[in-house]
Amino acid sequence: MRELRWIVVFVCCVLGGVVAPATGAEPLRDVIDAQVTAGWKSNGVTSVEPSTDAEFLRRVYLDLLGIVPTYDEAVAFLNDTAPDKRSKLIDRLLEHPRYAVHQADVWDMVYFGRNPPGYGTDKREGFQNWLAEQFRSNRPHNVWAGQILRAEGNTVEQGPPMFFVQYSRRPEDAIEAVTQKFLGVQLQCARCHDHPFEGWTQLDFYGMAAYYSRLQVVNVGKKNKLTAYAIGELNRGEVLFTGSVSEQELGKKGTPVKPKLLGGEPFTEPELPEGFKEPRNFPSGKVPPAPKTSRKNALADWVTAADNPYFAKAAANRIWAQFMGKGIVQPVDNLADANPPSHPELLKQLTASLVEHKFDLKQFIREILNSNSYQLSSRGPVTDAMPLWYERARYRPLSAEELLESWMTVGGYNDALKVSGKEPEGRFRPRGITWDYVRRFFGRPNDGVGNFQGGLHEHLYLNNGQVHQLISKQTGSLYDTVAKSDQPWGKRVERMFLQILTRRPTVTETEKFVAHLSPADDPQGRLHEAIWTLMTCSEFRFNH
Amino acid sequence: MQGTCPRHEHVSRRSLLKGTLATASGASVLNWGGLFQSQAIAEAAKRKKKHCILLWLNGGCSQFETFDMKIGRSTGGMFRDISTNLPGARVCELMPAISQRMDKLTVIRSMRTSQIDHPGGIYLMHTGYARAANVRFPEMGAIIAKYCGSPEADLPDFVKISSQGNAGAGFLGPRYQPFSLGRDGNLPPFSTSQLTPEKESRRHSLRDFIEEQFARTHKADPARMHREAYDRARRLQNVRHVFDTDDEWAKYGDKYGNTKFGRRCMIARRLVEEGVSFVEVGQSGYDTHGDNFTGHKSLVPTMDRAWSALLDDLEERGLLQDTLVVWMGEIGRTPRINNRSGRDHYVRSWSTALAGGGVKGGLVYGESDQDGIDVKDNPVTEGDFFGTIYKALGVDPETENYSGVRPVPLAPFGHKVVTDILA
Fold first, then answer.
1. Is B403 within 8 Å of A513 when comparing Cβ atoms?
2. CB-defined contacts A:B, below 8 A
3. Class of domain B50-185+245-421
4. ipTM of the complex, rounded to two decimals
5. Tens digits of per-residue pLDDT, B169-215?
6. Does A381 contact chain B (CB < 8 Å)?
7. CA spacing 20 to 30 A to B102: which of A177, B123, B222, B324?
């Protein structure tokens, strides 16, 4: 039945030349499948089969909650015979408390990356908690993105100003980051020379940078034991343009550039009253007063307006890529003419749907996850991590956060803690683990263009490092459960596979593991090795 | 890339080379496999590879107390100069050993760089680029590892020994992260297996099985990369003896001056001999804002002896012609001597030196003015310097890598290779 609908849509697309308006009754998930299928057809690509329940289960847990399911959750889902169990699971996970926590982790990396510039940006719980709250209450994306750009309040009690703390007194860096992260526009080339392909000139760049020429990071004192910062905006101050880098000379003073939107009008601001005075720097310890006219807020309004030519498209593309691996425009922060989308019509429809539903991210994510395209298998001959035509599910490495919390789940660290009646000491603080190492060895697994690279240090840590501390032997842990079980080894191996890899073992795997585990010499070592093997193998390392 | 049998079952190229090379040095070692018909082929295979050793003088060594003395000027300081084996060139009396090896060095006395503080300078003189908010530039070591290293090697291709450097592999990715040894050449955390070889092998066979099961049905690159990196970590265990240098130190300690820095230099030579592409060796303490002369008097002779021994040792083993030895810190020091007998940070005019593979040797390039305040001729920027180093190692400095959508050349845009000093 569903297939038939696809064909109808496909024929409509091709014959009609234009696609039905996004406001049509067509659910977005069906639009996605029709467009992706059309891409396979016109490019002669064969897709793989749909995912198994086990593949889907692990993928959707990691994508929505950033953690693998527990043994009980896995068994319950795999045994469920309801035909709509996948869609129900998606709904349930979207309301799970960890949904907000994990999405905040993902977007925190978008805005800050692993080692952000700027003093104090490494301690940004205020921002992270605020971000999680946006997802918990499912606030419209354009609203909270606008709040980051308005940067009101302080970095601890409110949170959003932390973004600009990265770019203290560097308006050029700030505008590079804002245009890339919020609009998918790469202006940085035009910082030093007119952009070679996109038609941006250096004056365009400095016209945009001028919006941030008056920002200052102000230390406003300690709150909750953390230093809080606010973003102050002066009434004066311009960026200076010194011409092309190739023509620059030492000591040459630039000319001030007035703010002007990309492809838009110059910004008009009323003259300051005669004799207006203000200090050159905001004093620390005091909340900086608002300026008479805020350039920063004017730019925030323009960026997040529903009719901004880039914002919605950039957001739709980025969120699509978060779940589908590759952006329809890839990389996701380069929506340039020279970098065309693989599925232009689909990007148009996704963007329209996001705008139509007022940037409701849960609705948007629900549609993507319910599509057959998202639910393909990760098996198959294609070698790309992120296949161009979405003919196979994508592979992405688990983040440092996902790895540690998933290890804590599968080794039974959390279960053992529960049995002993103790509370975890914080998200990334299991006993015997140095979070800093996990972050260092697993925090940046990709090269500059997003390809996974195995690092030597990652494996030294896995082979010889603290990860062994997470194979807990406490009551309630996986080790303890398996060691004390009186079930036959085959059953116990199944338990280990379900708990760690979220699937049942194959016959061959059961045989091999039983043969490894059953000999009487060194049973403890053997069990530890088997758990370690499943926790460190490629199948575990990736979300696929 | 991947053949029909797993990579770790192959004999690595390095161990093959070692087999034959040991024969070359006279020991009776089985030429197992017999894959190399003659020593000449093995030697040729080894020769083709370029190496680089960076001697990093952390804090910023003074040009006035080394290669750019200003005798009789108010900026000159308290040391005398001595003649060298290069006619007309004179160096500080603290470097008697180097003075007799000036025919091997190319000294640049006209460095002019852009970052005057330590973190900025350390970043700059490791990457060739000033720090930027939105791009993570790779260190020279990561670049050399990528372009001069061999993927099949058992040893890591970028090793640091007690040195600084705050950029790491940057956008080149974790494959090129440095492997960092401690002050005495000790291994970094987690490099030692806690298992007996039998247990390690038992564990490995189970892991290998599960990887193979997955690889049968899942062909995606990331999983393959993950397996290859695991193999590298395992292969490292096969060559751990390379890092155990006690025996060799007992033999060569005197030559290198019996200092920690000397030992690090000897380890660097050993690693290069074993095929490592890039080794960085650190010596700390040059930030002499106070007591510059006492500071240099205690540091430079150590460095002089170790550096000279390293050059000799490389040459005796036929390695110097393929190994570029770079000598530098992140900054130079001020001409003005402050009221604590110190010299502060200075980047308008300072000195670095190169030796070995790819450069001429016996050359002093560039000149500062009579007080060492500014460069008089042939200024060399950080970009020029990095471009020249890459060129000397046979790597095109214009080669681009990508950080997101931005193409980034190895040496910054606008640099000029100093061809006058290239061999």
1. no
2. 196
3. alpha beta
4. 0.90
5. 999 999 999 999 999 899 998 998 889 999 999 999 999 999 999 99
6. yes
7. B123
